[in-house]
Amino acid sequence: MNKKIKHIILFTSSLIFFCISIINFYPEKISKILINYTIEQNKNNLSLDKDEITVFTIGTGSPLSADRVQSGTALFVNNKFFIFDVGDGVVQKAESMNLPLNDLDGIFITHYHSDHYIDLPYMINRSWVLGRNKDLNVYGPKGLKEILDSNKSFLKLENKHRVDHHGSQIMNIKYAFGVSNEFKNQNKQIIYENDGIKITAFNVNHYPVSPSVGYVIEYNNKKVVISGDTKANDLVFEMAKNADLLIHEVILNSLLDKTIKVLDKKLMVRNSHIINDIQDYHTPPNEIVSLANKAGIKTLILHHLIPAPDNIVIKKIYEKETKNFNGKIHVANDGDKFVVK
Ligand SMILES: [Zn+2]
Ligand SMILES: [Zn+2]
Fold first, then answer.
1. How far is the CA of 125 from the centre of ligand 1 (A)?
2. CA-CA distance, 108 to 20, in Å (whole number)?
3. Distance 165 CA to ligand 2 centre (A)
4. Is there a single domain that holds both residue 219 and residue 297?
5. What is the pLDDT of residue 161?
6. Number of structural domains, the chain?
7. Ligand 1 geometric centre to CA of 162 (Å)
8. Res 208 pLDDT > 90
9. Is the dihedral of CA 9, 14, 17, 19 positive or negative?
10. What is the arrangement of strands in the sheet containing 336-340, beginning at the earlier edge strand?
11. 5 alpha carbon to ligand 2 midpoint, in Å?
12. Residues 278, 318: contact at Cβ < 8 Å?
């Protein structure tokens, strides 16, 4: 070993030893640096372009995948910040991604399965606690008003404690609740039209869960479509024609068939029954691929992954069952970012 390398090794190990000693014996001395670093890190640096649509898949899981956050998609368009669905873990994950929850403009719910709205009270509350000083409009099909009304009593004490503690100037109670924009069940309808942004809700087939909708977001000749939970449905692909992004749910029925057989053998009747039930109201990859090819979809993002591709075997099955898609395909992870330019 030459002399120069010896010196470098000696210097590096002395430096590491010095740093560890400082952290060990004088943690309070470096805490200020750490606090400053954390605050700077937590500032959101999204650097968004006004002409683009930016999408983050906050949560890509389903009730079957505890390692992933449940449904939640953030969308930034023309200085507006919207979130579509707020399943379990969406608030925490969005915060860890430094998404500016204090600046949230609207929440859109596709349907009232818990994996799509169980974090709704927390999202309303958390964005307010973090400094939201404007109305938070919540959009959803029939049932929303009742949920938001019950949310008022659910959050009554929490809100009171925050106001009592920090004062009404810091915690303006006026913004502590979501504003209901419940819409009636129609085949398709524009539910938001402002500043060049148009959002259309359309019915999907998640029978027996009704109402259940998907959303089309259009701005500046760009189009993003979110399927919601649905079995194979022509309307999704009709709405998604010429879309820049189609964000679609998916279920691997081929794998679930095998799971049912194993569960039956183990006499796990309840689990087997539920997995059997869920197969008929989601869409398997081959059906998505054939409809998306017919509709000429350019980019397909799969989320609400049943099950999550968190090991090499399931990853390969997703790859195999989507290989005939003609466009670009992404099996999304929590926290992925997609920009429509
Ligand atoms: Zn559902
Ligand atoms: Zn779902």
1. 24
2. 48
3. 37
4. yes
5. 97
6. 2
7. 34
8. yes
9. negative
10. 178-183, 136-141, 106-108, 80-84, 72-77, 53-59, 336-340
11. 57
12. no
| Domain enclosing residue 30, as ranges | 3-40
- For residue 150, the surrounding DSSP H or E stretch is helix 144-166
- Cα 63 to middle of ligand 1, angstroms: 9
Q: Do residue 25 and residue 164 come from a single domain? A: no
Residue 236 and residue 310 in one domain: yes
Q: How confident is the model over 64-88, as pLDDT tens digits?
A: 877 999 999 999 999 999 999 999 9
- Determine contact, residues 304/333, Cβ cutoff 8 Å: no
Higher pLDDT: 241 or 42? It is 241
Say whether both 32 and 172 belong to one domain: no
**Residue 228 CA to ligand 2 centre (angstroms):** 8
**CATH number of the domain where residue 93 is located:** 3.60.15.10
Which of the four pLDDT bands, split at 50, 70 and 90, describes residue 1? low
Residues 158 and 184 in one domain: yes
Between the CA of 70 and the centroid of ligand 1 the distance, in Å, is: 11
| Residue that wins the pLDDT comparison between 199 and 242 | 199
C-alpha 46 to ligand 1 mean position (Å) = 31
| Same domain flag for 28 and 87 | no
Could you read off the pLDDT of 227-271 as tens digits, one per residue?
999 999 989 989 999 899 999 999 998 888 889 898 889 989 899
**Least confident residue range of 23-32, 240-249, 301-310:** 23-32
Asked if 184 and 300 sit in the same domain, the reply is: yes
Nearest ligand to residue 63 Cα: 2
- Residues 120, 81, single domain; the answer is yes
pLDDT for the residue 26: 83
Question: pLDDT digits over 111-135, tens only?
Answer: 999 999 999 999 999 999 999 999 9
Q: How far is the CA of 206 from the centre of ligand 1 (A)?
A: 7
**Which regions of the chain does DSSP assign to beta strands (E)?**
53-59, 72-77, 80-84, 106-108, 136-141, 178-183, 188-194, 197-203, 213-219, 222-226, 245-251, 299-306, 328-331, 336-340
